[in-house]
Write a structure and sequence with these properties.
By secondary structure, this protein is an alpha+beta fold. The chain has a domain of 44 residues. Helices cover 35% and strands 26% of the residues. A hairpin with a 5-residue loop joins strand 21 and strand 22. Helix 4 crosses helix 10. The N and C termini lie far apart (101 Å).
Length: 527
Amino acid sequence: MTEKNVKERGAIFWLAKNLTGALLRFTDRHWIIKVVSLIFAVLAVVFVFITRAAWQPIVLEVRLHTPQLFFGLLLWIVMSTLWRSRLRKAFWIIAVLTVVMFGLVERYNLDPVQYITLYLRYKSLDLKELSDLPETDHERVQPLHSIRMVAGEKITIAERASGPNFVRVGKDQYRFTMAIEPSYNVPRLFGNIQEIFNLSATSPALDFSTSREKVQFAVGEGLLWGKSAHVNVINTFGLFKFLGYKPTEVRYITDDSGAWVEVIPLIRYTGLFPHPEFGGVQIIHQSSGGFWHSLKSLFVGDGYWIRPRDIGKFPYLRGQNLIPTEVSRFMAESFKFQGGILAPLPGFHSGDLRVPDLPGDQNDQPYVTYDRFTPGVGDGNKLYHYFALQAFQKNSEGLNTSLFVPADGIGQIGVYRHSERQDGLTGITAVDPMVRDSQPMFDWSSKGTAEHRPFIRKIDSKTRFFWLSTVVTYKDANGKKAGDFIAGTIPLVALTDASSRKVVWVDADKPKEWAGQVEKAMGSIWK
């Protein structure tokens, strides 16, 4: 080493070098230290490896905020350069502009990164302009939250039910399915899922006594550590998926052989400004578990991945409710840019649309619906995520646009623009007051409506658009504010004509007769 190089080394370098040399000389004389150090190093690597599912969400969160981190670092470099170069005037100009920008972001709730991400997402959507509305079918009478609440009353203190999902079971049965999971930590760590609820979604009555199915899943959404479905999915990830994928809620359906399987939809975050896309599904078959299964789960995970482009190769997945709601919701929110990149800006709002949510409703949009399209119009008769979009203004309650996002991720997004056709339909946020007003004798202090889903049928030779509302009863006064409600055994159902605003109360016990009941009640208005 030359004299020049020696002078360039600092005190910290020489301190580290001398300490390292002393440690190596000490371990040369004490070989046991080397062995123990090696053992601890191996154990540390193994620990980090088997706990990777715990810190993968942190890595993913950093990945999602790379634009903010990049711009923050760039701003810091520019500001520090200006300060050192004594260009103080430029420094203070940029500082003031930065403060103003953050003030505008706070005032108008316009996150620049989110703004750009939504715009780029809208430009990338594969849209299909619909000339006709589809007809809905297999309407579910009960709201999702009622299913959740009643399920909690039908199990023991040592059990709990997972969230219900509206899915297809077999070829044409539409059901609510959910797992019956252990509720205490020891069974969650060592136990299995041995039963699931399989309820008819089209029946107004909830018969839990005959809806239990025997299964044997060694992993589940509510189980712990190596038996957690999310941990098993993450442990199968390679580096690329580890940095950009996220598992979501577990769904229980039957495969082509009729056996129950767990299906975990994945979200893929992609792009320079990361946005959520459908990332396929992870399939986990039934297993009794055991020591070797637990060991495998901790190291390599369980299940196998089906790519989005391969979903159509599996009949039991085609037309199924697979796409995560976070993905379809982001698509719908990007429609605020249908009027161009300036559409959502304050004072402009040209074509700016919003996804309206109902206060106190436990199930925000999208609503999972079965839609039957005219041949050549849509992408087949199957489950869709439906969105009812309204104009940006809070006081604008007209239905602007209907979106039909294929729930299996196959096909284009159906767009029906009611405003361009001057349909003059009532939007989703205006339905509740109309339903209440139609029955002034009800005690609405303890009741309300939930989940205003579309009911679209061809009646009297014309496609008619109604809102299907279920009357619910709140558990208590505080529950009303929090949305803690239940719909009862056979709930009251109202159909609100989106054109005339007339409310028709139908027999919830006879869904197949609703169209006839509506035609009879609306005949004089239509004629």
